[in-house]
Amino acid sequence: MARYIGKEMSRVDGIAKVTGKAKYAAEFQISNLAYGFIVLGTVAKGTIKSIDMREAERAAGVIRVFTHLNTPKLDPKFSMVQAPSRATDEQDKSFRALQSDKIFFNMQPVALVVAETYEQARYAARLVKVSYNTEPHTTDTEAVRAIARVPTQAPPLEPPGNPEETMRTAAIETQPLVVEHTLTRGNPEETMRTAAVKVEAEYRIPIEHHNPIEPHAAIAVWQGEKLTIFDKTQGVYGVRAHLASSFGVPEENVSVLSPFVGGAFGSSLRPNYYPALTAMAARELKRPVKVVYTRTQMFTGHGYRPYTIQKVALGAERSGKLSTMIHEVVHNTSNIEEFSDETTLFTRQVYACPNLYAPLKITNTDLPTPTWMRAPGAVSGMFALECAMDELAYALKIDPLELRLINYAEVDPESGKPFSSKALRECYRLGAEKFGWKKRQFEPRSMRDGRLLVGWGMATGVWGAFQMPAAALITLRVDGTAQVASATSDIGPGTYTVMTMIAAEYLGLKLEQVKFELGDTKFPRSPSQGGSWTTASVGSAVRGAALSIGTKLLALANQEPNSPLKGAAAADVEMLDGRLRLKSDPSRFVNISGVMKRNGLTAITETFESRPSEEREKYATLAHGAQFIEVKVDPDVGTVHVTRAIEVTASGKIMNPKASHSQEIGGVVWGIGMALQEATEIDHRYGRIMNPNLQHYHVPVNADILEIETIFIEEDDKIVNALGVKGMGELGMVGIPAAIANAVFHATGKRIRDLPITPDKLL
Ligand code: MOS
């Protein structure tokens, strides 16, 4: 019987976090530290004409002002790219600061002022005067999409006669639409033409920014050719590789430490420009340097969810059976490199539908490069698809939940493979029951609470059950304590806790006898924390390392003549409370400390690398969920409140229900923010973000969050991995924006297809 796995556990690092003992990147105390402050540019495109830094250099405490004129070149040859759907190394074209006079986006770093104190650096940064040769820019994905063409296709539109407009159009015409990929199944064109019932609509998601509480920060310390850097990151190995190549030093010369991360959500999956910038300054000045982004600098200092335009057309029989799905996506990237959000990734697998056409196109804009942001691609793609399903339900006059059930995918529609497990039907059933869905009146504007309009909406959520290669080590000491380590990260989901639980479970120790460490390149290699794959990946490695220790102990025990475990197979032993015993007969055991002492060992260390099994390849592996939402809309002012949210998810085994519920509640909260509030506003005349702060970039506050209930349907799935764990951190958000938009339609009769659903759109 499991002692820890599956039980409610408080965070093992909780007390350290609330007492300030947990150190975040900027909090490490380093002597002789100098402080860097980033100067941001003020135009969207062009070149730097001149930089006058005389006044800044004369300011009190200033040590040096770095610009592209005095910054060494950083070698961009290597890279780290990890996305849910790809795990390949690609040429690193990511933006690096101060490498040339070229301006790629507004609020691009153009100088770094280093001074004796933070205040001196920040003050002097204002004294740096930069002038530019500007070029026409385009930051508006709508405009690019309207004019740009897919290379090899139709000729460009005639530029209009107005010269200013001609300049703008000229800029836009240089922006090709890159076809990332097209997914096709069956004969979508023909079947759409002949479908009995069709809906077609366009949906829009604005740029959105991760806004973790902890700002991105680094402290770099060089000792000769060796670099130690404290960094806020989701992947210490990625940062190490990035910095080693940037500075032309071997990877083992670079130590990256990131023991605590105050939220990241994808914004620290890539190294970003500041670690190299910080390390560059420290190397040049032969002195430790710290750089911390301001909240404003975070808006161009890491990526963002791209501006996404989606056209969805659905064709169905009168019975509700889908015949065709068309899901066309255009989203933006930068002018520096390509980034794909894989918006259509799950469209292929959600519903049983024989015909599909899903092209994804990417267009260049003069903005920073987007990146993965919680539930990347999935929450965007499912917003459009699940709203379109609701529209289809109304066109057919079929209950929206019923429509999902009619099109339930019993096997993976893309590959025909069976699912390793899929409890989505049970999620729908239980969610509907808890919510009281059958009391829903079908017609929009048919439910009220006094003067408020009441709307009930639902949607489906989906995410992958990803697993990546990962390694962990365990040192079991003769005193019955264990050190467990892996270079993963804990950006908040409770990785410290769950890894401690897994190790304690398989080592048969008490929780407090196990110490798990992460976030340091001195530990075995793990993937970046992202894609909701950490527990499946690193957890499997920790389990494997514990089992290896058991195997080692068994071999040692059985070298002894009278071993009670003689003839036992490694699979039939387990460790518990200091004993190695037979699972089939616990009265046959050895004392672990005795075996170690007789062999002269004070500790046993095992490193284990886990990989996804080949067995998985025979199955489709996904995590699912169903979301039911109640909104109340004030018809006079257009305000929307999400008064009730019930989310039922199925993501395999739930290791720690307490932390897992927190993950799913967080997903619902973010879904509410995405549906109703979040948008990065750009003034396209200047190509500049107008709300780079938490005053004007709105996220939910307590007053926006009412009743949320999260429920798990546990799946017994030993195919995904031995722990039976699927990803669940991102899953909780997927489906929520669509369910809210559908509820708003039900309340008001207004179909709002562009997020966020702000009051003005409902009046
Ligand atoms: Mo998550 S967007 O994979 O950090």
Automatic annotation (TrEMBL):
PANTHER family: DEHYDROGENASE, XANTHINE DEHYDROGENASE. Pfam families: Ald_Xan_dh_C, MoCoBD_1, MoCoBD_2. It comes from Nostoc minutum NIES-26. This is Aldehyde oxidase. InterPro entries: Ald_Oxase/Xan_DH_a/b, Ald_Oxase/Xan_DH_a/b_sf, Ald_Oxase/xanthine_DH-like, AldOxase/xan_DH_MoCoBD1, AldOxase/xan_DH_MoCoBD2, AldOxase/xan_DH_Mopterin-bd_sf. SUPFAM superfamilies: CO dehydrogenase molybdoprotein N-domain-like, Molybdenum cofactor-binding domain. The lineage of its organism: Bacteria, Bacillati, Cyanobacteriota, Cyanophyceae, Nostocales. GO terms for molecular function: iron ion binding; oxidoreductase activity. Residues 19-136 form the Aldehyde oxidase/xanthine dehydrogenase a/b hammerhead domain.
